[in-house]
Amino acid sequence: MTTDDPTGSPVRFGLVGYGFGGRWFHAPLLGTAPGVEFLGVVTSSEERRALVEQDSRGRTTFGSLEELVDAGAEAVAISTPAATHSELTDRALELGLAVVCDKPFALDADAARRSVELAEERGLALSPYQNRRWDSDFLTVRRLVDDGALGDVVRFELRFERLAPEDGPGTAGGGTLLDFGSHLVDQALVLMGPVSSVYAEWRTRENGLDDDVFVALTHTSGARSHLWGSWSQGAPGPRFRVTGTSGSYVNGTLMDGQEDLLLAGHTPESLGPAWGAEPSLRWGRLHRGDEGEPVPSENGAWSDFYPLFARAVRGLGPLPVEPRDAVASMTVLDAARLSATEGGVVRFSG
Q1: What are the tens digits of pLDDT across the range 67-118?
Q2: Fewer beta carbons below 10 Å: N end or C end of the chain?
């Protein structure tokens, strides 16, 4: 769903950072989002400024958040190394900007909570960029759960595994637990609800960062989530296996295709209704003790995020992702870090 702002006044947006995420994900989506006027990119790097000009001739670059505000910005998306997220989010909020912050939203729950409270004090929209809530496969899982096709869900298994050890885990993402785990935990909490205990394992790479992460969550409902994240998995497992009292849904190893579309230079504007459509080879199957039947996938919809955020800034609808969801996710990730480091299960009271 993408809808134009009925007030006729698009939200004036800037982007901080033009690395992989900013260049390939945020800039194309901001540049084609209904209800958004994309003013330009904040970067102090001459190399990145040249890339902005190469990708979008004439697009403005700014040297600071202050310059962006002086140009009339109302909102900003932050796509910079993980260690800078909280500082930049808080600075933008202090300047009166609504903020979208990429994952990981913060390095820990305390920092996430401070940003959320600052946004509440200032009356500003703040949203974690959890775009993978709009992955084709996750939207399909939510549809099956909502329709009751699986019965009561008792186990949620999710993998974010790749064989790209030279690419990650990098310092920009803060390690695999924060990088991939931010998506894994968010989806588990959205689907299965709050958590009562956390257990985690990981392997430390030569660069000192964690990889090959496994996190087991026990939800207050009694259901369990098992989550895997890795940059060095030669045999990735199924993206999803969701088990309920009436059946199980299993999806293959292929990731949602929207990332590949953006990397190939496509946008929601250029593809129109074909954006996010998954070929049948990517469909999952619904099993009831047999070979199962194919389940057509929902269209992926990363393109929904920025129009929804723009509407929220104008007071026309809810935020696409509530900021307190980031605090909940970071609390779980903090517990997973503690478990992986010291061993044992971390339990939550109350």
Answers
A1: 999 999 999 999 999 999 999 999 999 999 999 999 999 999 999 999 999 9
A2: C
Rounded Cα distance between 185 and 332, Å, is 7
CATH topology assigned to domain 133-301+332-347: Dihydrodipicolinate Reductase; domain 2 (3.30.360)
> Where do the domains of the chain lie?
11-131+305-320, 133-301+332-347
Q: Is the dihedral of CA 229, 233, 238, 242 positive or negative?
A: negative
List Cβ neighbours of 237 (8 Å cut-off, separation of 6 or more).
159, 161, 228, 253
Cα gap 66→62, rounded to integer Å: 9
Which residues, at least 6 apart from 230, have a Cβ–Cβ distance to it below 8 Å? 160, 161, 162, 176, 180, 211, 212, 213, 236
Q: For residues 276 and 38, what is the distance between their CA atoms, to the nearest angstrom? A: 22
What kind of architecture, by CATH, is found in domain 11-131+305-320? Answer: 3-Layer(aba) Sandwich (3.40)
CA distance 26 to 74: 17
User: Please, which residues have CB within 8 angstroms of residue 118's CB and are 6 or more apart in sequence?
Assistant: 90, 93, 94
Distance CA 84, CA 105 (A): 10
Q: How deeply is 72 buried, as exposed, middle or buried, from its count of CB atoms within 10 A (0-12, 13-18, 19+)?
A: exposed
Give CA–CA dist 151/153, Å, rounded: 6
Look at residues 255, 315, 320 and name the one whose alpha carbon lies nearest to residue 9.
Answer: 315
E strands, the chain, where? Answer: 11-16, 36-42, 60-62, 75-78, 98-102, 126-129, 153-161, 195-204, 210-219, 224-230, 240-244, 248-250, 284-287, 293-295, 346-347
The tokens of 292 are what?
């199962």
